[in-house]
UniProtKB/TrEMBL annotation:
Keyword Cell division recorded: yes
Protein name: Anaphase-promoting complex subunit 10
Cellular component, GO annotation: anaphase-promoting complex
The family this protein is said to belong to: Belongs to the APC10 family.
Record flagged with keyword Cell cycle: yes
Pfam family, one: ANAPC10
PROSITE patterns: DOC, PROKAR_LIPOPROTEIN
Keyword tags: Cell cycle, Cell division, Mitosis, Ubl conjugation pathway
Length: 181
């Protein structure tokens, strides 16, 4: 279900794009200096640290319905030990009051990226306004959580325009449009 993988490889392939920068992010709690900025700074040395009771929540709200195919979470059990999540729930909906659980994953001493596929009952990426990542428990019964990075991927829409059709122009007037600059 969840496996280690580098999200940048998928992004460079052109099949997906990171859409987290199109969302409004909020947290259930955080220690000062360990919040959303650290969670989204592309640096594996910084992290979000919760400060409160479980579950710890990361809320990701999009301004328009957005297709989501994968969520990547970077954690490091070797560095964070009891702060490392062991059970995570992924929920989706239009707002806080209608979220439905779409995935629950168990993490066993994770170190690196965990890829979580986000699919509907027909095995297709979901379209949603909001995603909530809920940390339900930590390793060694830890109270607070460390998450080092989160990435949200959306599939890239293939272009429906076939450039090969442009070569079939037959008149001189049409031939002037045969090349796109």
């Amino acid at each position: 279900m969840a496996s280690e993988k580098d999200p940048l490889i998928s992004e460079r392939s052109g099949t997906v794009r990171e859409v987290g920068n199109h969302a409004i992010w909020s947290l259930s709690s955080c220690k000062p200096g360990f919040g959303i900025d650290q969670l989204r700074d592309d640096c594996m040395d910084t992290y979000w640290q919760s400060d409160g009771q479980l579950p710890h929540l990361v809320n990701i709200q999009f301004q328009r319905k957005t297709m989501v195919s994968h969520i990547y979470i970077y954690t490091d059990y070797k560095l964070d030990e009891s702060y490392t999540p062991s059970r995570i729930s992924i929920r989706a909906g239009t707002h806080f009051n209608d979220l439905q659980e779409i995935e629950v994953i168990e993490l066993i001493e994770p170190s690196g990226w965990e890829m979580i596929p986000i699919k509907d009952i027909h095995d297709r990426p979901i379209r949603t306004y909001m995603i909530q990542i809920a940390v339900l428990s930590n390793h060694q019964n830890g109270r607070d959580t460390h998450m080092r990075q989160i990435k949200i991927h959306s599939p890239c829409e293939p272009t429906s325009f076939d450039l090969n059709k442009l070569q079939n122009f037959s008149t001189v007037k049409f031939q002037q449009y045969a090349t796109i600059r």
